[in-house]
Amino acid sequence: MKHALCHDCRLLCRLPAHAALELRCPRCGAAVHARKPRSLERTWAWWIAGALCYLPANLLPIMQITSLGRAQADTIMSGVVYLLLHGMWPLAVVVFTASVFVPVLKLAILLTLLVSVHRGSRWRPVDRTRLYRITEAIGRWSMVDIFVVTILVALVHLGNLATVEAQPGAVFFGAVVVLTMLAAESFDPRLIWDRSEAR
């Protein structure tokens, strides 16, 4: 007898013997599947969209600061360099880690998982499952830059003295974070173990 976990309320449900029957959770009524439907296709779609948004997120300015009539637009990396040059290296490390390193790491891990599942790899399924869990856990921490820009835009309205405006890079960066979170959510880690069980 096979069982599956309801994705909404986490109730363990018995799967019907006939694959044609659709099972509903007895507690919340949500559809219950042995595998996430079309997991690989959906994960590839989210991953490709996130990868396409990553370049403009880093090349376009994320915010523009106007101080005493002089405007300066900063990308993520120019902001990191500015913080380093002004002796704020701990903050520079935090911004670099959350805004550059973590999105690249998430995209690389998801790509590795997708390719390994497509190739039917039996290589270290426990470690690949841990990589997936890391990707899920660090997903929302990439939003540090967006929070900083949002707070500055909301707080700094000093007329001609100083203003802060969000720029297109912030939109693309937010899109990268959300798309990679959706990719991680749509990936079914049980696919990693299918080949090992078949052996």
Average per-residue pLDDT, rounded, comes to: 80
CATH-level-2 architecture of the largest domain:
Up-down Bundle
- Tally of distinct domains: 2
Biggest sheet: strands, sense, closure? Answer: 3 strands, antiparallel
CATH topology of the largest domain: Butyryl-CoA Dehydrogenase, subunit A, domain 3
Bulk shape: elongated
Q: Which strand order do you get reading across the main beta sheet? A: 6-5-7
Using only C-alpha atoms, the radius of gyration works out to 22 Å
* Number of beta strands: 7
Q: Can you count the helices?
A: 7
Instruction: Identify the CATH class of the largest domain.
Output: Mainly Alpha
The separation of the N and C termini measures 20 Å
Q: What low-confidence regions span 5 or more consecutive residues with pLDDT below 50?
A: none
Order of helices and strands: EEEEHEEHHHHEHH
Question: What can you see in these coordinates?
Answer:
The protein is an alpha+beta fold and 199 residues long. The protein has two domains: 1-34, no CATH class; 38-198, Up-down Bundle (Butyryl-CoA Dehydrogenase, subunit A, domain 3). It contains seven helices and seven strands; from the N terminus they run ββββαββααααβαα. The protein has helices at 39-59, 76-85, 89-118, 125-138, 144-155, 168-186, 190-198; strands at 3-5, 12-14, 23-24, 31-32, 63-67, 70-74, 162-166. It has a three-stranded antiparallel sheet. It has a two-stranded antiparallel ribbon with strand order 1-2. A hairpin with a 2-residue loop joins strand 5 (63-67) and strand 6 (70-74). It is elongated and about 70 Å long. The model has no long low-confidence stretch (mean pLDDT 80).
